[in-house]
Amino acid sequence: MTLKEDETMKRVRWIVLGLVVMAFVVGCASKPEKEINDAKAAMDAVIKEGLAKFAPEDEKKLKDAMGAVDAELKVQEGKTFKSFDKTKQLLADLSKMAADMKAALPAKKEKAKADATAALEAAKAALGEAKKMLAKAPKGKGTAADIEALRGDVKGAEDMLPEVQGMIEKEDYSAAMTKANAIKDKAAGVGDQVMKALEKVKAPAKK
Amino acid sequence: MTRTVLALAIFFLSLCGCTTEEPVPPEVKLAETQEFNLWRAGAPLYLQESFSRYRDELDKAKNGLVQVNSRFSWFRDYQPVQAEFAKVLKQGDELFRLLEIEKQNKALSVREQMTDLRERLQHLDQCSRMTNENRACRSSLTKAEVILNEARILYGGQQYQASEEKLKDVETHLATAERFITPVLSRYGDKSQIRKWKKWAEETIDESADREIHSVVVVKADRKLYLYKDGDLIKTYPVGLGRSGWSDKQRARDNATPEGRYRIIGKNSRTPYHRALLINYPNEDDREEFHRAKQKGLLPRTAGIGGSIEIHGGGNKGMTYGCISLANNHIEELYTFLTVGTPIAIVGALDRQNKLSSALTEIQNGRRKKKTP
């Protein structure tokens, strides 16, 4: 073996060693189990807090992001030389997204609760107003039957208020707000009818 | 030797390069966005099956992409995957089109249902006021109206499915209200009942003619009192009835006005109701009916038959406990005309074409309309 051949052999050894090390490093990249578990835990935590109820689009985005992670994992698992860098990045993004959503959720819940409670109060106030008008309404000729019917209506609408309260307690704020507004509309309708009844009574007096 | 080593190195490096990111077709991102937008637009609600099929196709395309991306970069061919995603996009566009149609149809259908139910509600409200059916019936009507308002609010927010769900509850409450009102009204469209009422009225008028005296026929459906002399109608007065005046009196405190052939058995000028003419309720027929109803268990064992039914003043607009009320000047006239023994018939209607039977027909038409899609 000449000196030149000896030099060449040395280079070859170094190159082969380098390739072996590279292959070892690349081929042995393992699935980022910890990151996966952390991301899943973050996602589950925010879903458990009621994400679907208060921010359904956020929940969908989160699930889609998890779907992208799964697809990337499948890609890497199908490869001989795996790299989970992208997977890790996706998982980190997902965890951050979940954490951000969780942080924003209480404010959304509070707003929804405040809106529903305000709607309930407005419904109560409208019913109170209708009752005041009914109390003032003349119970004489032509109005007695109507007034009594309207009084029954106000009572019926009032009986529905605990349902709204129950919905608020169950954090079903959207349904509570819809029902409260519907009760308020009914109360306003009673008020209008009392006014009409009053006009009916007043009309002949003007002649 | 060096060349071999270099070739080997290049091969290894290219293998390692397989892990680097390859540009994926733009259709992939477009399809993902499309799927999100379809979901947001409500495809899972309105086109459940079609959307599910679309999702399956999308998943298939995504799996194809995974397989391609798993290959060495030398062997990657995105064309079939691109074609798959393009197919999914086309399917998604079609779904958007169908979704719009479906939503428009649903909106139209819900609006029509709401209009029908609103009409039924208004009609039942009128019937309830007409019959003074103000308790359980009105409670059902109030519930129906509040839920109908909810449906309207949801409809305004384009939540047509949720709105339609609410309408089912409206339907239930209206049906309950109808159950309370229908028995009151149905008698007024019943042929045999009308025949019986007509017979009582004719006998009373005939007696007036035969004995050349006054007689009175009260027709509840008309809310009128007809005064006869020698068999001829001489005067008509508007009257008020009991709170449950459209029904026949069955027992004490039912606030119904009795039906049958009666006579004036007393006159009272010192009454809070200006003037009063007491009638002989309960008569023999009423007593028999009362005992039969009790035996059948239709009335509580402790129920009494009631009494003190009068034709009195105080105004014809208010509701009584079962008496027949008139304006004070009208009772004044009657008081002078009528004597103890004057025959009186109190009947529901003399013709099947009366406002209560018409109201019943309208309720039945409303139900029929509901059944016909």
Number of strands of chain B: 8
Oligomer: heterodimer
> What is the helix tally of chain A?
8
Distance between the termini of chain B: 87 Å
Helix/strand order of chain A: HHHHHHHH
For this structure, what is the CATH class of the largest domain in chain A? Mainly Alpha
- Basic shape of chain A: rod-shaped
Unreliable parts of chain A: none
Pair with the most extensive interface?
A-B, 48 and 46 residues
Radius of gyration of chain A: 35 Å
Q: Care to count the β-strands of chain A? A: 0
The arrangement of helices and strands of chain B along the chain is: HHHHHHHHEEEEEHEEHEH
Average pLDDT of chain B, to the nearest integer?
89
* Percent in strands of chain A: under 5%
Share in helix of chain A: over 70%
Can you walk through the features of this model?
The complex is a heterodimer of chains A (207) and B (373). The model of chain A has no long low-confidence stretch (mean pLDDT 85). Chain A has helices spanning 3-27, 33-48, 51-54, 56-77, 85-136, 144-158, 161-169, 173-206. The longest helix of chain A is centred in the middle third of the chain and has 52 residues, at 85-136. Chain A is an all-alpha fold and 207 residues long. The radius of gyration of chain B is 39 Å and the shape is rod-shaped. In chain B, 59% of the residues lie in helices and 13% in strands. Chain B folds into two domains: 23-189, no CATH class; 191-351, L,D-transpeptidase catalytic domain-like. An eight-stranded mixed sheet of chain B has the order 3-2-1-8-4-5-6-7.
